[in-house]
Amino acid sequence: MLKNGERIDDLNLNGLKLIQREDMFKFGMDAVLLSNFVYTKRGDKIVDLGCGTGIIPILIAGKSRDTRIVGVEIQSEVANIAIRNVYLNNFEGRIDIINDDIRNVVDKLGIEKYDIVTSNPPYMRHKTGFDKNSESENISRYELNGGLDDFIKVASRLLKFGGKFFLVHRVDRIVDIVYNLRICNLEPKKIRFIHPHIGEKPNLVLVEAKKGAKSGVVIMPPLYVYEENGGYTKELLSIYGKTSIEEE
C-alpha cells in the first residue's frame, strides 16, 4: 500500500491511520479542530471540499455512525493517497473520493443534496512567488484553484435548505468569510476564535453557517491551544481524545 516517500501515521483515535508523503502538504491541527467542530446526525450526507489525503472525512467517519462522506481533491496524486486511506481504514462503504476541481463538482454531486459541507481550504491568496518548492504544497496553501468565495459558493449550492457549512480559516480573512457567506444565503451561526496562547491574538477561526437561517450569531468562548509551559491545554487534549461528534 505504501509508495516511496510515504509513511503511515497513527491518528490515536479508534485505530485510525493516515498515509502521508514527505514532499506533500501534511494535515495540521486545524483539520483536527474542524472535524471536532462539526456535529452530525445519523444518516447525514457530507461533502468535504479540498480533502487532501482524506483527514477530515476519515475523522468524521471515525467519530460518527451511518454518515456518508464525499471528499473532493484536485491533485490526482493526493486524491490517490486519500483513496488508499479510505481502504486503509475500512471506510470504502462510507467515504468516496472525487479527483476534481471543487468548482466542477456541483454538476456531479447535485444541487441541494447534502446536510453538511466542510472545508479547510487554502488560506493564502494567489501570488507570483511561493514559500514552498513543492508544487503540491503550494496548491494546498494558495488559492490557485479557486478562492474562498468559490468554496463558499459551492458549499451553498450543495447544501439543502437548513444544511450546515463548517469552515476553518485564518482569522485575518473573517470579513471576507462573513461577507461571502451572507451573499450565498449561508448565515453565520457560531464563530470560535483559536488562540495559540492565553493573552495572544487569535490566528485561526472556526465558523458554522446555516443555509437559509435568520440572522443571529453566537461568539463561542475562545479556544486556547497551549499552556504557559508549552503543553496542550486540557480542552485541546480532550478534543484529540474525543470519540464522537454526533448530536446528543
TrEMBL record:
InterPro entries: SAM-dependent_MTases_sf, Small_mtfrase_dom, tRNA_Adenine-N(6)_MTase. GO terms for biological process: methylation. GO terms for molecular function: methyltransferase activity. Residues 32-169 form the Methyltransferase small domain. Pfam families: MTS (PF05175). It comes from the Bacteria. The keyword Cell division does not apply. Keywords: Methyltransferase, Transferase. This is Methyltransferase small.
